Automatic annotation (TrEMBL):
Annotated source species: Streptomyces aureus
Annotated gene: argS
Entry protein name: Arginine--tRNA ligase
This protein's record includes keyword Membrane: no
Class of enzymatic activity (EC top level): ligase
Subcellular location: Cytoplasm
Amino acid sequence: MASVTSLTASVHQRLADALSAALPEAGAADPLLRRSDRADFQANGILALAKKAKANPRELAATVLDALPANDVIKDVEVSGPGFLNITIADKAIIETLAARAADDRLGVPFQQDAGTTVIDYAQPNVAKEMHVGHLRSAVIGAAMVEILEFTGEKVVRRHHIGDWGTQFGMLIQYLLEHPHELDHEGGKEDGEAAMSSLNRLYKASRALFDSDEEFKARSRDRVVALQAGDAETIALWQRFVDESKIYFYSVFNKLDMQIDDPDVVGESGYNDMLEETCRILEESGVAVRSEGALCVFFDDVLGPDGNKVPLIVKKTNGGYGYAATDLSAIRDRVQNLKASTLLYVVDARQSLHFKMVFETARRAGWLNEDVKAHQLAFGTVLGKDGKPFKTREGETVRLVDLLDEAIDRATSVVREKAEKVGLTEEEIVENGMYVGIGAVKYADLSTSAVRDYKFDLDQMVSLNGDTSVYLQYAYARIRSIFGKAGDRRPLAHPELELAPAERALGLHLDRFGETLAEVASSYEPHKLAAYLYQLASLYTTFYDQCPVVKPAPAPEVAENRLFLCDLTARTLHQGMALLGIRTPERL
Ligand code: ARG
């Protein structure tokens, strides 16, 4: 494993040195380097520096140019416009850098310097309830962040904060007690659908009784008390709901091609033992105060429509604990026991006020501070094709599994259409259909900025043209097919060759993989990785059109160098897609 210094980083360093040599009194100055269409890079930092030093920017630019020692990386620098530097990289440096990447299993991507421990809260459905598109987003975005952070060297602890506690369980448990066989079903332990449909049936029946029968309602309320008191029989029944629901959750995660491990599922109930202490600490430290019988935390900037402060309620007037007490206890656990340096929550933007208040409370209590940060990776709503929140024609929330099944169906037909040409077996068609369908759903979610709403449009998602996972998967498979019988032979780079514009553009982009990942990891923006990969596939397409690899046959070392670029592109695509949780079949 050897990390590779990117061309951007080495050019940046050289320019920064030249800047301080040209103008020592300015101290360390940022050359403000960016990719440019005119040359490979443009440095704009001289303008600000000249202003500060009251110098003529074009003259200063010329001095900087003189201070730049001769080197192998920069082939050409030119002063342009009011004092920009246009920088062209040497072809040799591009291929040599890429060859160093190709020699490394991690494609030369360095481990982050100051890695810490991130506890990530994602994929958190609710017990005895259906999973819908909101749960999809948390799962997909969260899983991508897990992979990306781990790849950069961060230690990651997964936490699935499932909704497994609350007063609604009183009604469900009471009903099950009175109708002991209602959760029985034909399907075995693996049958998620059977588990969910019996849960649904029981939920509806108990709800109907609860709404129509006052005595059942009263018995249900007593059952909540028994549950909270830890009554053994009540807990045993509650556990059945949790277990049946988990069978279902796992079946959906499985379909999503996502691994969720049981020890990482620590739901709301997992913090029951801490709730009392959390409240005591908050009250004794004065962070929370009694108000109308409840234990509350107030904030100057959280006001209701009447202008009065709206509190975070940590303990209700009736002594019950809610969502906030659980989340505050979870923070204590994650910071004190799991030793987190970062807490990341992949949760719907509609819960942003909750997290704002919870984080601020934790800060006042000292659980969060300079060394331990919390961040909500908030995501927007999934909309139907009509641009309205996603509902069935009957106005019900759409079941996530139904959407996934439909995506797989559609994708399978797309795959089947091309299958004959590639010579896929029926088995491969079915497997690829799954990878393409699930990939399409994940990619659509990951390729727009998380906070934005997006339209769930299967036609668009499985389209072969445009910014879709299928497009990227085909690009990958096409590259792999070039290697065909050559198999896994690693082509050799030829740094001595002059490069065509499309080769340079592809090469410079390949070199930016590590930088992109570092940015995505620190800003929690997986859509930037999707954009990078899409651009990679597009640059590859242009390269493939303009620079023949096989026919018409170029000179042998040119062909070899092009194969080298193909191979590195495929490996980068494969790695990037894997980080997004998307498979890249070898044949498609
Ligand atoms: N179960 C919740 C829901 O479905 C999400 C939980 C988010 N995580 C948390 N720590 N509050 O909306």
